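Predict structure. Chain length: 286.
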Amino acid sequence: MKKNNLIRKAKQAAAGLLTVAMVLTGAPLGSLTSQAAGLLPNDDLKVGENNKYVSTAGSFVYGSSDSTAFVFGSSSGHQGTNSYGADTYTFNLAGITDASSRENVSRGYYDNNDVTGNASTASAQPTIKSAFQDNWWHGYYAFGKPYRIGTDVQNKTAGSPHNATNPVDPVVNTWTGASNDQPNTATFTSSAINALHTGTGHYNGEVQTFTDGANSVQVRQEIKPSDDDQYIVVQYTAYNPGSSTVDFMVGNETDTMITTQDDVPIFVTPHGDSTASFEGVHFPKF
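Prediction complete.
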């Protein structure tokens, strides 16, 4: 994430949403990925590591780009507005207040005045936060198709949905606001949504296997700085070890808030536009 421009997040009603939809064939990663074992974990990101990607404090890992920091660990105490968050291990994002704080163990998630008493527990809010109060970004997955994803993603009333009868994401029914661009009511009928992590012992870069009947998908979630140090990357790599096509969605949500700005405006860009700088949903630059 660049210049405190927290991208690839959305505010739908009161929640931010980052979602990836995939159609996984039996060889989704191409001919170069043929090993029977499937995905391997990225152990450079787990608790206990102190390298160019992360630092460890207590049971949490921290990392940063040139302007944004993250923490990954147990979400206890950070379940979200009204304690609805179900993902037991996840991440949070924060803007860096001073470049020198990237040298401390939290990599700038906490500034130099706050890091000593907070890094090992990650219980305190960062100064430039991305979520309301103590919220973190919770992950979920589902086997199925979204209501709509394509070049007409900005079209609120027309276009061709992928799965109108049983979409795995909420469908906005009515819109409000001065420009009729704020979701007002939504319908959510699917029971296929599951927390990305349950129980204990999870870590950043871990590979998990999710099943749905005869289908299974291996998923690796990585929260890490980009190679050019400009962004924080929330990366999902999925592998289908079977021979059948599998529809699969994975993403994160939160009740967004940038510092004291709770009404976080967003903009949406179409998917499939090769000329766009970014695809999906974005926070504006502050």
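Summary: Residues 115-118 form the longest helix (4 residues).
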